[in-house]
Each structure stands twice: as C-alpha cells, then as structure tokens.
Amino acid sequence: MATDDSAVRAFLVEQLGAAPGRVEPLRPGEWSSVYAITRGGEELVVRFSPYRDDFEKDRAVASWHTADLPVPQVLEVGEALGLAYAVTRRVHGEFLETLDEASTRAVLPRVFAALDAARAIDVSSTTGFGGWTAHGGGQHRSWRDVLLTVGESVPPERTAGWRERLEASPTGAAPFDEAHARMRDLVVFCPEERHLIHDDLLNRNVLVDGERISAVLDWGSSKYGDFLYDVSSLVFWTPWFPAWSNIDFLAQATRHYAEIGLTVPHLEARVRCYAVKIGLGGMGYNAWKGRERWGHLARIAARTLEFARGEPLGSRA
To answer: By C-alpha distance, which of 120, 138, 111, 110 is closest to 64?
Structure first.
C-alpha cells in the first residue's frame, strides 16, 4: 500500500517521537505501509492501513501470547493522515518462507507448536466463524458457510469486482467454478469446530531466529474455524518456494499429530477442502489485482484444480 512518505516521516518524528535519523521504510504489505523507527532507544515498528480492525485484531491476539505463540505487544493504535496506525515493538528474525530446506525442517516442530498453541486458545467468549473483529464475533454462523460462500466473498469487501475481472482474464472463471463445485463435496468432512486460525503465515508474517519462532505477525486475515486451515496453507503454497520441494507438509503434520496423541478425523479430506478454498481465494484476489497478476492467477488456478480433482497431495517427507 502506497503512502505519502514525507508526510509519514514527519508524523513519525513530530507526533510519535521517532529519532529523525532512525526512520526506515520496510517492505510494505498488501494492505499496509510499514516503517521501523527508534524512539527513546527502543526499536519499534509502525504500520499504516485504511483498516483499523486489522490492528485491533493484532492487539486482541497479543493478549493470548505464549512462549510457543509469540505475538508482539501492540503499544498504540490510532488515526493519522487519513489512515489507522499501530505501534509495536520490533522483533528480528528471518521470514519462514525464505528459509532453506534444512532450516525449515529444523524449525518445523516449532511451527507446529505455534499452531498447537493457537488451537489451544480458549475462544469460548467469542462467537461465529470466519473473519472476525475485535469487538464482535465471526461473520458467519457456521464453518461450512465460510467455505461455501467463497464465491460470494473472495476476498472480503475489500476487493469488489473480482469476479468480473476473473471472467475477463485469460484464465477465466471456469477453473474457479469447477473447483468450487468440487469443494461442496468435501465440506461434509469438515467439522464445526472453532479455533483461532492465522490464515496468512507465508507473507512475511512468521519470523524465525535459529530453531525458534521469534514472532507471529499480522492477524488481520485471521479466522475462527478448523485449525487444519493453517496446515493447508503450507501444503498449498509449497511449490512457490523451491527450497521446500522435498518437504511434504501434510506428512509432517500427520506425524506431528500422531506424536502428540491428537486424533484428527478425515485429515487429508479436510486439508484438500481447505486447499481448494485457499486457491479460490487466491484466484479471486489476483484477478482483482489486474493484469500484472495474470501469470500468478493462472498458476494458482492450476494448483487449485490439482486438489479439486483429487490428485495426490504428495508423498515426500
């Protein structure tokens, strides 16, 4: 997301007290601009976005922080320059998706530990499924509604017109419609369980320091639903990271749940269903982004159809 850099820098120095020579723009997110600052000798990160709810979700999830699920504390959320902003303490590390195979395998137990910690969070004081707000519950009455309404809300209201752009793209809407129809057969395997799902692990949101996770960032896309959804994200996006070509995340997850004694009925069918859902969301989003994403759209469509048509999920370990 683009912002007026000079206006942002002035705000950071004059209003937030950043040291003038210690303002560094970081790689922006899809929905935010990001700056690293130093204030009073402390390293901080300041993000700007039109969507304050994303930052409020970060603040809410930070209250569930554990050693296995490290979520940086949100120090301040406010409004400035026509945008919302959030201030958090800066955490260092390498992004999960930039690791080589050996480093990924070494940290994978900690990734599963973080997902286990999220699964263990008590969300009984909240309601609903799917995307949620800090001051309300999930937007849907059931998990299967979340899955099946993907054709109506992929992605949410931020990407109006995605369907028309998909139909106008070289990929067209046929792969989307075929995969969506197949997903209707798979949702019968999906339980109506409510857990905290991150739903954006591989967009520079998991920081790794050695063999530990130092932070899980940006919960703006998070949902209430089946915990296997985050595992499915790792499975779906594996081909985008060549260093992971020999890692079968489904097999690794299956082994992990067996080791901790967790029975997971219909694991493969659920992962397949969520992989299709993730692919449909990716198709809708990249169609909305326009011509510069058409190549990415085509690749996501092909990957989505692999799962929808029941091709093997992999046998690598």
So the answer is: 120
Instruction: Please check whether residue 307 is in contact with residue 276, taking contact to mean a CB–CB distance below 8 angstroms.
Output: yes
> How many Å apart are CA 38 and CA 24, to the nearest integer?
9
Q: What whole-number distance in Å separates Cα of residue 192 and Cα of residue 291?
A: 38
* CA separation for the pair 72, 228 (Å, rounded): 24
The answer to whether residues 145 and 225 touch, using CB atoms and an 8 Å cutoff, is: no
CA atoms 133, 90, 72, 67: torsion sign: positive
pTM: 0.92
Q: For 127-141, how does the pLDDT look when each residue is reduced to its tens digit (9 = 90+)?
A: 999 999 988 899 999
Rg (CA), the chain: 20
CA distance 78 to 84: 6
Decide: residue 129, CB within 10 A, 0-12 exposed, 13-18 middle, 19+ buried: buried
Confidence (pLDDT) at 27: 82
SS3 285: helix
CB atoms within 10 A of CB 117: 19
pLDDT of residue 269: 96
64: tokens are 């569930």
Cα–Cα dist 220/113, whole Å:
21
Phi, psi (deg, nearest 5) at residue 130: 80, -160
CA 46 to chain CA centroid, nearest Å:
19
Q: Is 73 helix (H, G, I), strand (E, B) or coil?
A: coil
E strands of the chain, at which residues?
A: 23-26, 33-39, 42-49, 74-80, 83-89, 94-95, 129-132, 138-140, 195-197, 206-209, 212-216, 223-225
